[in-house]
Amino acid sequence: MISWKEEYVLGIEHLDQQHMQLFRIAADIHELLKNELITDKYDRILKLLGELKDYTVFHFTSEEEYMLSIGYRKLLSHKVEHNDFIEKINNVDLEKVDTDHEQYLLDILEFVLNWISDHILQSDKAYAAK
Predict the structure, then answer these.
(1) What is the pTM of this model?
(2) Lowest CB count within 10 Å: 2, 3, 62, 109, which one?
(3) What is the mean pLDDT of residues 66-77?
(4) Secondary structure (DSSP) of the chain
């Protein structure tokens, strides 16, 4: 399980706090995956996906407003990365979720962790360095 590390700090307090919240949502997904006492996880998965989607929309808006305020030249390409993430979450195959909870949770956890880690360390660090 990935956890928050100092290397993810951008030095922009409100965005760092929001990134930490994304890690907390990922930790909730991980906890659900590990919980063997819950056999039907469908409703909880949908709740976590909704939370992830809502929070990322909030965070991406905040991040894009910040980039606009500093005149970041790569705002549009950064926004495309955000839109791709939202599209991936919006296009969840609910049939797959219902068929194999565990595999789906593993897939979404891997996607989320890789994306937020790579995105913070590469794309976000680029505008934070400005």
Answers:
(1) 0.88
(2) 3
(3) 96
(4) -----GGG--S-HHHHHHHHHHHHHHHHHHHHHH-TT-S--HHHHHHHHHHHHHHHHHHHHHHHHHHHHTT-TTHHHHHHHHHHHHHHHHT--HHHHHH-HHHHHHHHHHHHHHHHHHIIIIIIHHHHT-
In a domain, 15, yes or no: yes
Residue 41 in any domain: the answer is: yes
Instruction: Give the residue among 48, 62, 61 at the shortest CA–CA distance from 92.
Output: 48
Residue 41 belongs to a domain with what CATH number? Answer: 1.20.120.50
Q: Would you state the pLDDT for residue 127?
A: 92
Query: What's the domain count of the chain?
Result: 1
Give the dihedral of Cα atoms 48, 124, 16, 59; nearest 10 deg: -40
- Percent residues over pLDDT 90 in the chain: 50
